[in-house]
Amino acid sequence: MPLSREQKKDQVAWFERVLNDNEVVVVMKNSGLTVAEVSDLRNQMREAGGGVKVVKNRLAKIAIGDRPGSEVKELFTGPTVIAYSADPVTAPKVVVKWAKDHDNLEILGALMGETALDAPGVDSLSKMPSREEVLSQIVGSLTAPWTNVLGAVGAPAANLAGIVKTIAEKEDA
After folding, report:
1. Is the pLDDT of residue 135 over 60?
2. What is the CA angle 64-56-72, rounded to 5?
3. DSSP state of 111
4. Does residue 19 sit in the same domain as residue 88?
5. Which residues have CB under 8 Å from 90's CB, separation 6+?
6. What three-state secondary structure class fits 148?
7. Under 8 Å CB-to-CB from 23, ≥6 apart: which residues?
8. Could you tell me the residue range of the domain that residue 169 belongs to?
9. CB-based contacts of 95: which residues, under 8 Å, 6+ apart?
10. Closest by alpha carbon to 11, among 84, 63, 51?
11. Both 101 and 140 in a single domain?
12. Are 163 and 173 part of one and the same domain?
């Protein structure tokens, strides 16, 4: 069923919002995926904090326009599905992991900010730590010195208590 002009405008506006509100948009070829498989991918992406949508190529190309990284428009041929996330690593991680178990999904590339990526670039991005992992590493490295200081301050008291206990046990024996 063809889309009305108003529906097409709505889809272009939606895709522009996706491009503006998310750090990465992964473009994939949707050949041979069943509805159940796309739903499974969509559910896994939603759980991770992203989204998946089958898009019309012509409308996606209009939405991308002439923005930096617009060479990604060349990827929109044939049946196309996109995955997107605010975290630049979430969508690539989920998609690459999911594609390993589903041969029908072919990762074509991505648009990350103003940079167009090819399929190996998406794979490399999927191996990077997520924003939460980086933040936890930073917090861990900031709190580690305090943990060491507290351990060093508490150690002499613990050592002294152990020595007193040992002496008391020897006197009782």
Report:
1. yes
2. 35
3. E
4. yes
5. 24, 48, 49, 50, 130
6. helix
7. 85, 86, 87, 88, 112, 113
8. 129-173
9. 26, 28, 41, 45, 83, 105, 107, 122, 126
10. 63
11. no
12. yes
144, 65 Cβ separation under 8 angstroms: no
**94-120 in b/e burial notation, b at 16+ Cβ within 10 A?**
bbbebbeeeeebebbbbbbeeebbebe
CA distance 69 to 65: 10
pLDDT in tens, 21-34: 988 999 999 888 88
| pLDDT per position as a tens digit, 55-113 | 899 999 999 888 888 888 899 998 899 999 988 888 999 999 998 888 888 899 999 88
SS3 assignment, position 82:
strand
> Is there a single domain that holds both residue 112 and residue 32?
yes
Two tokens at 87?
């975290």
Can you list the alpha helix ranges (DSSP code H) found in the chain?
A: 5-21, 35-48, 57-64, 90-101, 119-126, 131-172
